[in-house]
From TrEMBL, chain A:
Keyword Membrane part of the UniProt annotation: yes
Gene Ontology biological process: aerobic respiration
HAMAP family, alphabetized: NDH1_NuoI
Protein name, as recorded: NADH-quinone oxidoreductase subunit I
Source species of the chain: Vulcanibacillus modesticaldus
Enzyme Commission code(s) on record: 7.1.1.-
Binding, [4Fe-4S] cluster 1: 58, 61, 64, 110
Subunit annotation: NDH-1 is composed of 14 different subunits. Subunits NuoA, H, J, K, L, M, N constitute the membrane sector of the complex.
Source species taxonomy: Bacteria, Bacillati, Bacillota, Bacilli, Bacillales
Main location: membrane
Automatic annotation (TrEMBL), chain B:
Cell compartments where the protein resides: Cell membrane
Signal peptide interval: none
Organism: Vulcanibacillus modesticaldus
UniProt lineage: Bacteria, Bacillati, Bacillota, Bacilli, Bacillales
A GO CC annotation given for this chain: plasma membrane
EC number annotated for this UniProt entry: 7.1.1.-
Name of the featured protein: NADH-quinone oxidoreductase subunit D
Functional description taken from the UniProt entry: NDH-1 shuttles electrons from NADH, via FMN and iron-sulfur (Fe-S) centers, to quinones in the respiratory chain. The immediate electron acceptor for the enzyme in this species is believed to be a menaquinone. Couples the redox reaction to proton translocation (for every two electrons transferred, four hydrogen ions are translocated across the cytoplasmic membrane), and thus conserves the redox energy in a proton gradient.
Subunit structure: NDH-1 is composed of 14 different subunits. Subunits NuoB, C, D, E, F, and G constitute the peripheral sector of the complex.
SUPFAM superfamilies recorded: HydB/Nqo4-like
All copies of domain NADH-quinone oxidoreductase subunit D, residue ranges: 121-290, 292-365
Keyword Translocase applies: yes
Alphabetically ordered keywords of this record: Cell membrane, Membrane, NAD, Quinone, Translocase, Transport
UniProtKB/TrEMBL annotation, chain C:
Sorted UniProt keywords: Cell membrane, Membrane, NAD, Quinone, Translocase, Transmembrane, Transmembrane helix, Ubiquinone
MF (Gene Ontology): NADH dehydrogenase activity; oxidoreductase activity, acting on NAD(P)H, quinone or similar compound as acceptor; quinone binding
Protein name per its UniProtKB record: NADH-quinone oxidoreductase subunit H
Purpose: NDH-1 shuttles electrons from NADH, via FMN and iron-sulfur (Fe-S) centers, to quinones in the respiratory chain. The immediate electron acceptor for the enzyme in this species is believed to be ubiquinone. Couples the redox reaction to proton translocation (for every two electrons transferred, four hydrogen ions are translocated across the cytoplasmic membrane), and thus conserves the redox energy in a proton gradient. This subunit may bind ubiquinone.
Superkingdom of source: Bacteria
A cellular component term, taken from the record's GO annotations: plasma membrane
A Pfam family reported for this protein in Swiss-Prot or TrEMBL: NADHdh
UniProt similarity note: Belongs to the complex I subunit 1 family.
Compartment annotation: Cell membrane; Membrane
Organism in which the protein naturally occurs: Vulcanibacillus modesticaldus
Catalytic reactions on record: a quinone + NADH + 5 H(+)(in) = a quinol + NAD(+) + 4 H(+)(out)
């Protein structure tokens, strides 16, 4: 419309009118916004949200802590209180969600599926302290747990 | 009487709406004209290459997600490609097809963001929303297969993490005709617009020789009529099985780079279409030891991302961690020409030129 | 109402006049509030979004909340700014915007000042706003602001020429600068959009540029100048610049309705619908057009903007004047 170089000739304003036509048509198109807090955002099965932990299943093998790329998992075990059984049970388990990147590697290496992903993704908090989640919190995070790890 | 005018030093960024992140450029302007420009990068530097030296190969994959975070699948592949090359791993057919499908979807998603933001930089707001609407569909697809919307962590050395869920391939197939229709709308809304043409034609022109001298790659190179696409020139994965063209521009201006990317989207759709049709059944992961020890050696592998040539130089000393890992990040190298392109253009051209280079700061600063 | 001004001075009359002004201010503020709401809704619909829908029913109170937020914000004057000019800027920009509304006739009954040089008054006063914008840009002591201010001045001065020329044709046709006479003339013949189609199109483009709206929103081009001349303003002063912009939308759309769309004149003899409704309908159409364009087009560049004004719009407007004059002599009109 403004500069015509290299001998391009087209009808003045044709492209402008085309664009106007398109935007006018879009006035009545159905809206795609999801009204988020009111409407639930449906996530697929495989979604990697905040982990769920089943302390019963954990065998304190430390693999999750070792694979974690950001070292966000710390855990400790204690001898099994039941003298009949061998092995160790989980004592403390903490995930620091300030640095956890939800990469799914911990659940991938877990031999007993003690740690699993859930569909929960809302972590906003007023304090950084709240982002350090302990064993109890992770155990209670038991909704929408992903079925399979692999 | 002669008017005395002074040049003004203007600091654009790191917090500026059209630097696409935390990029900073110090420009010396004479009125509206740019006399000199000095880009400053590094505000998002995380030292990925150094961190990688203390991580096992599997652990590095999530870090590659965060380089060019708009097309993480492509970065994922770059790393596993290098490791596979050094370990000489045969990847199962199905895994390769799944990789190609997700990579091309990722390339599309990245181009959508570029299209939306590059046109937004010229002042049009609607294309941005349209692009993000369609990108959302791709993210949903990728979310379904990998479990994340942007940081996929999907590829593994020797294969992929998940097989496609039931009905996923059909969804991808349905997406193709939808997207072809929408691409037409994109052209209708922007490509023909005279104001848009007036802004981008004959802007920031460089020829193919200059582009090669600057080490440019990707659409920035092809826009200047150099037919070079690693997918064709040095096929990796299974790209040699697909039929697609390499679109090139003629004049090497911003408009040509725009058109190259627009045409690339169509080619990506074409590749996805073929891949979805040809995909075989079978394994998705090669048999590998639990702890990956890469044999001693050195390798440079490269691939074509949405930005250009992403190369990986990997040195292994036979441990489970790399001795040295270097990313040749296309955004960073493409940015080198930026300050030279700015000189002589006006302030209003700055976002247009930057938009056409298509940088992602996660990749520039690594 | 206009006869208020001609009556002898008395305190009661002064009260009436002030009251009328306050009511008008209220109407204008109401318009601005809902124009912003409407704009965000329209752009939202085009962009397959809902637009504001949280504050109040259907989001109707969104702008009210926004304005309230601006009012309670801390009033910041940058340390290195020229404080006096920084304060004067927004006022100087807003005053003429409100003053130009006085001459626009809305219907047979609702009209304020019957000024014989109505259009000239509009054109003359509206150019004072530039001073306010330039002052704001300069006083902020910010590089982006001064660039925005300079762009604004260059743009407004260039586009005032085609703007005024584009309605010269109408002046030739009616032989009057009085806006009320112009509407009356359209009642007798036809709306001037038909004989003056060239003038209408130039006015539409120049008017858009004069309003600093997309695709001519260079003074506040967020992509290169962040926010342009009001980048340093916050709180109430910012609100004033914002208000100025939208009051001009009101004024420009009203003026266009009066000049080209026959003001309150009912089309097809639909006289039973009151004139003011017709005025509002035509006015809304033009306002919608502005929003529609904003949602569609990218922004032009400074040199293209100037080139377009001087190389295209002014010659076309001049040609229109010439054509009208020739046709007038030939007694076609």
């Amino acid at each position: 419309m403004f500069t015509k170089k290299r001998g391009e000739i087209n009808v003045w304003g044709k492209g402008l009118l085309q664009g106007l036509g398109l935007t006018f048509r879009y006035l009545k198109e159905p809206k795609v916004t999801i009204q988020y807090p009111d409407e639930e955002y449906v996530l697929p099965n495989r979604f990697r949200g905040i982990q769920y932990l089943d302390p019963e299943k954990c065998i304190v093998c430390n693999q999750c802590a070792r694979i974690c790329p950001t070292n966000s998992i710390t855990l400790s075990g204690k001898p099994n209180p039941d003298p009949e059984k061998k092995g160790r049970v989980l004592d403390t388990y903490e995930i620091n969600f300030e640095i956890c990147i939800l990469c799914d590697l911990c659940t991938e290496v877990c031999p007993t599926e003690a740690i699993k992903m859930t569909n929960k993704f809302e972590l906003a908090s007023y304090s950084r302290d709240n982002l350090l989640k302990d064993k109890k919190w992770l155990e209670n995070n038991n909704t929408n747990v992903r079925e399979a790890n692999h | 009487m002669e008017l005395r005018t002074e040049e003004m030093l203007l600091n654009i960024g790191p917090q500026h709406p059209s630097t696409h992140g935390v990029f900073r450029v110090v420009v010396k302007v004479d009125g509206e004209k740019i006399v000199e420009a000095t880009p400053v990068v590094g505000y998002l530097h995380r030292g990925t290459e150094k961190i990688a030296e203390s991580l096992t190969y599997t652990q590095i994959i999530p870090y590659t997600d965060r380089l060019d975070y708009l097309s993480s699948m492509l970065n994922n592949y770059a790393l596993v490609q290098a490791v596979e090359e050094l370990m000489n791993i045969e990847v199962p057919e199905r895994a390769e097809y799944l990789r190609v499908i997700v990579m091309e979807l990722s390339r599309l998603a990245s181009h959508f963001v570029w299209w939306g933001t590059a046109v937004l930089d010229l002042g049009a707001t609607t294309p941005f929303i349209f692009a993000f609407r369609d990108r959302e569909l791709i993210l949903d697809l990728l979310n379904e297969i990998s479990g994340a919307r942007m940081t996929f962590n999907y590829m593994r050395v020797g294969g992929v993490k998940w097989d496609a869920p039931e009905g996923w391939l059909e969804k991808v197939r349905d997406f193709i005709p939808y997207m072809r229709k929408k691409l037409k709308e994109y052209h209708q809304l922007v490509t023909g617009n005279e104001i848009f043409l007036a802004r981008v034609k004959n802007l920031a022109v460089y020829d193919g020789e200059t582009a090669i001298k600057y080490g440019l790659s990707g659409p920035n190179l092809r826009g200047s009529n150099v037919k070079f696409d690693i997918r064709k020139n040095q096929p990796y994965s299974i790209y040699d099985r697909f039929e697609f063209e390499i679109p090139v521009g003629e004049n090497g201006d911003v408009f040509d780079r725009y058109m190259v990317r627009m045409k690339e989207m169509e080619q990506s759709l074409k590749i996805i279409e073929q891949a979805v049709d040809q995909i075989p059944e079978g394994e998705i992961q090669a048999k590998l030891p639990r702890v990956l020890r890469v044999p001693e050696g050195e390798v440079y592998t490269r691939m074509e991302t949405s930005k250009g040539e992403l190369g990986i130089h990997l040195v292994s000393k036979g441990k489970d961690k790399p001795y040295r890992l270097h990313f040749r990040r296309p955004s960073f190298i493409n940015l080198q020409i930026f300050s030279d392109l700015l000189v002589g253009n006006t302030m209003a051209d700055l976002p247009a030129i930057l938009g056409a280079i298509d940088i992602v700061l996660g990749e520039v600063d690594a | 109402m206009a006869d208020l001004l001609t009556r002898p001075f008395s305190w009661l009359n002064l009260l009436y006049i002030s009251l009328a002004a306050v009511i008008m201010l209220g109407i204008v503020l109401f318009f601005v509030t809902y124009a912003i709401y409407f704009e965000r809704k329209v752009i939202g619909w085009i962009q397959i979004r809902y637009g504001p829908n949280r504050v109040g029913p259907k989001g109707l109170l969104q702008t009210v909340a926004d304005v309230f937020k601006l009012l309670i914000k801390e009033d910041i004057i940058p340390e290195k700014a020229d404080k006096a000019l920084f304060r004067i800027g927004p006022m100087l920009a807003y005053l003429p915007a409100f003053a130009v509304i006085a001459v626009i006739p809305y219907s047979e009954k609702i009209q304020f000042a019957d000024v014989n040089v109505g259009i000239l008054y509009y054109a003359a006063l509206s150019s004072i706003t530039i001073t306010g914008i330039l002052l704001g840009g300069w006083a902020s002591n910010n590089k982006y602001a001064i660039m925005g201010g300079m762009r604004s001045v260059a743009q407004m001065i260039s586009y005032e020429v085609p703007l005024i020329m584009s309605f010269l044709g109408i002046v030739i046709m009616t032989g009057s600068l009085n806006l009320i006479d112009i509407v009356e003339a359209q009642k007798d013949s036809t709306w001037f959009i038909f004989p003056q189609i060239i003038g209408f199109i130039t006015f539409l483009i120049a008017g858009n540029a004069e309003l600093n709206r997309t695709p001519f929103d260079l003074p506040e081009a967020e992509n290169e100048l962040v926010a342009g001349y009001f980048v340093e303003y916050s709180g109430f002063r910012f609100a004033f610049y914002y208000l100025t912009e939208y009051v001009y939308v009101f004024a420009m759309a009203s003026l266009m309705t009066v000049l080209f769309l026959g003001g309150w004149d009912a089309p097809f003899g639909l006289d039973f619908i009151p004139g003011i409704i017709w005025f509002i309908l035509k006015f809304m159409l033009l306002v919608f057009y502005l929003f529609w364009v904003r949602a569609t087009f990218p922004r032009v560049k400074t040199n293209q903007l100037m080139g377009f004004a001087w190389k295209v719009l002014i010659p076309v407007a001049l040609f229109n004047v010439l054509l009208t004059a020739v046709l007038k002599i030939l007694n076609v009109y």
